[in-house]
Amino acid sequence: MKRAGIPTEEFIYSGHTACPGCGALLVARYLLKVLGKNTIMNIPACCFAAIPGTFPDTCLGIPLLYNAFETTAATASGVEAALKIKGKKEKINVVGFAGDGGTADIGIQALSGAIERGHEIIYVCYDNEAYMNTGMQTSSLTPKGATTTTNPLGKKGGWRTRNKKNMMDIVAAHDIPYAATVNPSYPMDFVKKIEKAKNTKGTSYIHAYSVCPTGWRYQPELGLELGRLATETGLFPLYEFENGRYIINYKKKTKEVLEYYKLQGRFRHLSEDFIKEVQEYIDKEWQKLLVKEECSNR
Amino acid sequence: MKRLEKLVSIKDLPEAPVSNVPSLNQKTGTWRVFRPIVDKEKCIKCSICWRCCPDISIEIDNEGFPIINYDYCKGCGICAHECPKTAISMDREGK
Ligand SMILES: Cc1ncc(C[n+]2csc(CCOP(=O)(O)OP(=O)(O)O)c2C)c(N)n1
Ligand code: SF4
Ligand code: SF4
Ligand code: SF4
Ligand SMILES: [Mg+2]
């Protein structure tokens, strides 16, 4: 059954310890609504390792295996292989669920290996753009211009000077069967893509936009509005990579980067010139994505 | 595996370190600073507030109206901000 476009069933209990307005919770909530109770989650050290609560509590209505920080995709691969041997894989979804640090930095070789071996797992990166659980350190997915505790503001500036690593390009370069970006501000698009990942033979990769009021320094009620702005500015485009083809799901790039940046404390220090530079980069990336879509569908 | 209801002594611990007590015993409503209040007159029963609650603390009653569970609601205000009819107000607790 569906309500407001998404399945009604819940697999996350209230009483979890995520900060008020945490985006990771919505990512997991929508994900499990689609995957259902026959799902095993593998989670490394990250906010979502703390969110379920302290022993013996859990906010998850499904089994969860905690793994070492760098091993999410490897652990999920092992669970998948074991289920295959037991003849149970058909009925059970195996999920790797890690943060941006656990995916794009320390866990990247495990992920690369899993895709290469073609394990039937759904790997979800919830991207809150820094190492939040340990207090907002910079990751390779922290956006240009953001301050973190390892890029603190000082007299000589002090913020991240590189652009985000493009994880979708990295997994696409593995010729992965299915990869998609999702954003809880677009719930129907979100559940549709998880449905596709569920039915994919082989590895699927989901890159989820995940707001973090604590680390990004904005009022928690703005979470879903920020998500809409991220997509409407082209900072977080919604698209899929399916059997070698790119498909952009939302093409109205109507907003300026500034509108998104000005709502968050982590960008507060930036000059207009700097934001212009970011704008130019984003425009170029958007053009590149349009070309990728066009060429791959020829 | 024995399902734990309450941890009283070491004998209540499971054989392996497996968490299996639903987090429902953690009443996170105590974190709240602002309390969301639904105005049924304005509500059009769209369930958008239900959909966007990160604390799963909104239920929909038989008539289709949202009911907020103040045991768990942390007062993030997302429901109020997203409601298309501004039918939810955020009132300061203990006012
Ligand atoms: C091998 C190892 N190094 C460092 C840590 C400490 N640590 C725990 S959580 C974390 C941050 C995780 O960041 P991310 O993957 O982005 O998830 P988030 O907390 O942001 O949700 C770190 C560095 C660890 N647990 N294990
Ligand atoms: S620090 Fe950010 S990601 Fe972590 S629980 Fe809080 S809001 Fe969620
Ligand atoms: S979002 Fe607003 S209008 Fe829709 S059900 Fe909730 S309170 Fe009612
Ligand atoms: S204020 Fe936040 S936690 Fe409380 S009901 Fe609304 S969305 Fe849920
Ligand atoms: Mg992170």
Description:
- The complex is a heterodimer of chains A (298) and B (95).
- Chain A has helices spanning 23-35, 47-50, 72-85, 100-105, 108-117, 167-172, 187-198, 213-216, 223-232, 257-261, 272-296; strands at residues 2-3, 6-7, 39-43, 57-58, 64-66, 93-99, 122-127, 178-182, 204-209, 239-242, 245-248.
- Chain A is of the alpha/beta class and 298 residues long.
- Chain A has a single domain (9-296), classed as Rossmann fold.
- In chain A, α1 (23-35) crosses α7 and α3 (72-85) packs parallel to α5 (108-117).
- Chain B is mainly beta.
- Chain B has a two-stranded antiparallel sheet with strand order 2-5.
- Chain B is elongated and about 55 Å long.
- The mean pLDDT of chain B is 92.
- The chains are: A alpha/beta (298), B mainly beta (95).
- The A-B interface holds A 3-6, 10, 12-23, 25-26, 29, 52-53, 55-59, 61, 64, 184, 187, 213, 219-225 and B 4, 7, 13-14, 17-28, 31-32, 46-48, 50-52, 54-57, 60, 69, 71-72, 74-78, 80-82, 90.
- The complex binds thiamine diphosphate (TPP), iron/sulfur cluster (3 copies) and magnesium ion.
- The site of one iron/sulfur cluster (SF4) has 11 residues of chain A, from α8.
- Chain B: This is F420H2 dehydrogenase Fpo, FpoI subunit.
- Chain B: Residues 34-63, 64-93 form the 4Fe-4S ferredoxin-type domain.
- Chain B: Heterotetramer of one alpha, one beta, one delta and one gamma chain.
- Chain B: Pfam families: Fer4_21.
Mean pLDDT of chain A: 97
What's the multimeric state? Answer: heterodimer
Beta-strand content of chain B:
15-25%
Enumerate the spans of chain A where pLDDT stays under 50 for 5 or more consecutive residues: none
Radius of gyration of chain A: 18 Å
Broad shape of chain B: elongated
Q: N-to-C SSE series of chain B?
A: EEHEEHE
The rounded distance between the terminal residues' Cα atoms of chain B is 46 Å
Give the overall pLDDT of chain B as a whole number: 92
Number of helices of chain B: 2
| Helical run tally of chain A | 11
Indicate the CATH architecture of chain A.
3-Layer(aba) Sandwich
The backbone outline of chain A, from C-alpha atoms, is globular
Q: Strand portion of chain A, in percent?
A: 15-25%
Number of strands of chain A: 11
InterPro entries (chain B): 4Fe4S_Fe-S-bd, 4Fe4S_Fe_S_CS, PorD_KorD
GO molecular function (chain B): 4 iron, 4 sulfur cluster binding; metal ion binding; oxidoreductase activity, acting on the aldehyde or oxo group of donors, iron-sulfur protein as acceptor
Cofactor (chain B): [4Fe-4S] cluster
Pfam families (chain B): Fer4_21
